[in-house]
Design brief:
alpha+beta, 60s Ribosomal Protein L30, Chain: A, 6-stranded mixed sheet, 2 helices, about 30% strand
Length: about 120
Amino acid sequence: MSDRQPITRLDQNARRSRAVIHNNTVYLAGHTADDRSQDIGGQTRQVLAKVDEMLAASGTDKSRALNVTIWLKSMEDFAGMNAVYDAWIVPGQAPARCCGAIELAAPDILVEIMVTAAV
């Protein structure tokens, strides 16, 4: 008999799960925009909407976010991303956060966001 906590994986394929739930914590994979023709504001809105959907599917919401990691194609997009992100955050419930610029998986991806939240 094992007392190990179960692990639930959502929207899984051979390479990744979009969310992994363990021990009352949900770990979201990096999310990117579907319509990559949009500017940083549009892509950030799309990504945060996907984050909201995945958190809901995991039984939680953004008010329970513990940590957010944001990757930008360019730090020149920092202010534009923050304009959308700041409106998304629940007042008084800001998670720990980091943000940096990296080479993303495709040249038209401007932002990728990962979230860890309490369930």
